Amino acid sequence: MDLLKTSDLSDEQLTYLLDAADRWFRFNRTVRTADDRLKGINVVTAFFENSTRTLLSFDIAAKRLGAMVTTMPVDASSVKKGESLRDTAMTIDAMRIDALIVRHGDPDVPAQLAEWMNAPVVNAGAGAGSHPTQGLLDVATIRRHFGKVENLRVAICGDIRHSRVASSTRALLERMGAEVRLAGPSALMHDDYDGPDGIDEAVTDADVVMMLRVQRERLESELGDAPGEYLSRYGLTGERFAKAAPDAVIMHPGPMNRGVEIDGDLADSERSLITTQVEMGVAVRMAVLDLVTSQKRAVADEKSATARTIN
Ligand code: ASP
């Protein structure tokens, strides 16, 4: 199976992934007795856009379950010689890999690859479109902290228009019964936006305040705000956060621009779940890799059982 967007997941698969992520989260914090369920599995990561958290956490997740991981050096590959995406996909597939983890600036690329390849494809962030594993890790972090997602008020603030995190996280939160409030500078909201007027309104009484980075790489023109100006107008300051619910928490998918969309002290405060999100990222990706490769492993198990019986 591929994981291209959150709506690919049935309710059963969603619950399975969140429960499994919780277990892997605990596993990663404790002794980590070896679990090599992905032994013999080849995972390839191909990141056409920059990444720290997602790339490393997929790599660590796969290795923690015993898989072999190969990173395609995109900048040093034949893509730079003009090879088409389809030829690249067919080349990688011919190596009989077991999963491709891809990040690309074009939102349609993961789905295209999935069409061309036999190996399961996992979308690790596609343009301004979707980022399903980030959505999963965000809801898993919230669920772990509050013990539920339903009826929580979640303010997602910042560059909504260009954020694949906003769309994937929002979709899962709403699916699980949370009230999602989106807010940001009007130039960074979708054209049909008709939510709260500003950040203050969105943050008021919120249980979770999730701040987003301005996606400068996707902006057609500069916003015009100096960093300090952005913070006071649209960012998370202490004064603004004081309007949230008394036990509210702060989230950010990273990378953060301290002093722009978030005050650095708040990011480091006890109310911040930002590093927990990173930790949950590894756990979620362990669960995802286990799920997307499970079909193939089942067939392999059956075949080796048959081979054992024959011999
Ligand atoms: N790391 C997240 C992403 O890849 C958020 C960001 O880049 O701002 O979408």
Structure description:
- The relative contact order is 0.16.
- The strands form 2 sheets. The protein has a 4-stranded parallel sheet, with helices on both faces. Strands 6-5-7-8 form a 4-stranded parallel sheet.
- With 311 residues, it is an alpha/beta fold.
- β5 (153-157), α6 and β6 (179-183) form a beta-alpha-beta unit.
- It has helices spanning 11-29, 53-64, 85-94, 109-116, 132-146, 164-175, 199-203, 227-234, 238-241, 264-268, 274-310, and strands spanning 42-47, 68-72, 99-104, 121-126, 153-157, 179-183, 208-211, 249-251.
- The model has no long low-confidence stretch (mean pLDDT 93).
- Helix content is 43%, strand content 13%.
- The protein is globular, with a radius of gyration of 20 Å.
- It has 2 domains: 6-127 and 278-305, Aspartate/ornithine carbamoyltransferase (Rossmann fold, 3-Layer(aba) Sandwich), CATH 3.40.50.1370; 132-272, 3-Layer(aba) Sandwich (Rossmann fold).
- α1 (11-29) packs across α11, α5 crosses α6 (164-175) and α5 (132-146) crosses α11 (274-310).
- The protein binds aspartic acid.
- Aspartic acid (ASP) binds next to α6.
